[in-house]
Write a structure and sequence with these properties.
This protein is α/β, with parallel strands linked by helices. It is built from nine helices and eleven strands. The strands form three sheets. It has a seven-stranded mixed sheet, sandwiched between helices. A two-stranded antiparallel ribbon has the order 6-7. The mean pLDDT is 94. It binds S-adenosylmethionine.
């Protein structure tokens, strides 16, 4: 169940439901928490050549383009890239002819394992990955390839501290959350993830490859990348007031954002 071909097929099967989840705004952890924080961590992207890894249906690629980046989005799911291309066409159609603030996005169906064969070293100024590296079967080699393509990599992942295999909210008699019980942190194994929230068009499964904080740190070291900045974003009080579900993410770190750099030449 956890081999690479299955992982890719599952993302293709999920394409329509995942697309719907994002475009309807129902993925509010993205719109209110990790998406803005990742864009903020990228800084000023105007005029930069950006490679967005595991771009899915292009939500973050479009954020980067909206901020002025010239973006290439790659993903191994044909279904998700088809959605991304359609959305990009619509974005251009809607753009004012006089608008110069938007960069553009081009998309490729590509396994991130094949980055080195597809792009020459130094092709980009920045590589990004919005919640995708932990879904890739070999993140260490992807990080190493990314480090040859650009001097900087900014990515978000579920925070390994709270993303443990055993993760259960302990509640009082009225159902209020008391504390999150976590265990088996060091069990870094592929996990079949059930996407079964009611908000979804249909339920689906994907495969996630869990790693501990130390393993991520070692993968970056081995790729010759140094952590320049690390962020654990929290929702704002107004976001929590509008979407009470987000309150958990103000108690515990759900997201980890890393800005890593190659050594100066
Ligand atoms: C949780 S989704 C995130 C998608 C997108 N970045 C977003 O923010 O919506 C993970 C993505 O990683 C992609 N992915 C997983 N392994 C990949 C690989 N080896 N090469 C390219 N894309 C991959 C999946 O197809 C999926 O689109």
């Amino acid at each position: 169940m956890t081999d690479e071909a299955t992982a890719r097929r599952l993302w293709n099967d999920a394409a329509d439901a995942y697309h719907h989840f994002i475009e309807t705004g129902l993925d509010y952890y993205r719109t209110e928490l990790h998406g803005p924080a990742l864009l903020d961590a990228c800084g000023d992207v105007r005029g930069l050549r950006v490679l967005d890894l595991g771009c899915g249906q292009g939500w973050f690629s479009r954020q980067l383009a909206g901020a002025g980046g010239h973006v290439t989005g790659i993903d191994w799911s044909t279904g998700l890239i088809e959605h991304a291309r359609r959305l990009e066409e619509a974005r251009h159609f809607q753009a004012q002819p006089s608008s110069t603030t938007h960069g553009g996005v081009t998309y490729d169906v590509l396994d991130a394992a094949d980055l080195a064969a597809r792009f020459a070293p130094g092709t980009f100024d920045l590589v990004t990955a919005c919640m995708s590296l932990m879904d890739m079967p070999h993140p260490a080699s992807v990080l190493a390839a990314a480090a040859r393509l650009a001097p900087r990599l900014v990515f978000s992942i579920p925070n390994p501290v709270t993303d443990a295999p055993h993760r259960v909210w302990k509640r009082d008699a009225d159902g209020h959350k008391l504390a999150l019980e976590l265990d088996r942190y060091f069990e870094a194994t592929p996990t079949v993830l059930q996407w079964n929230m009611q908000r979804l068009l249909h339920h689906f499964t994907t495969i996630q490859y869990r790693y501990t904080l130390e393993q991520w740190s070692r993968m970056l070291e081995d790729a010759n990348l140094t952590i320049a900045r690390l962020r654990e974003p929290r929702p704002t009080p107004s976001a929590i007031a509008a979407l009470p579900d987000l309150a958990d993410a103000a108690r515990l770190p759900y997201v980890l954002i890393i800005d890593a750099r190659t050594p100066p030449r």
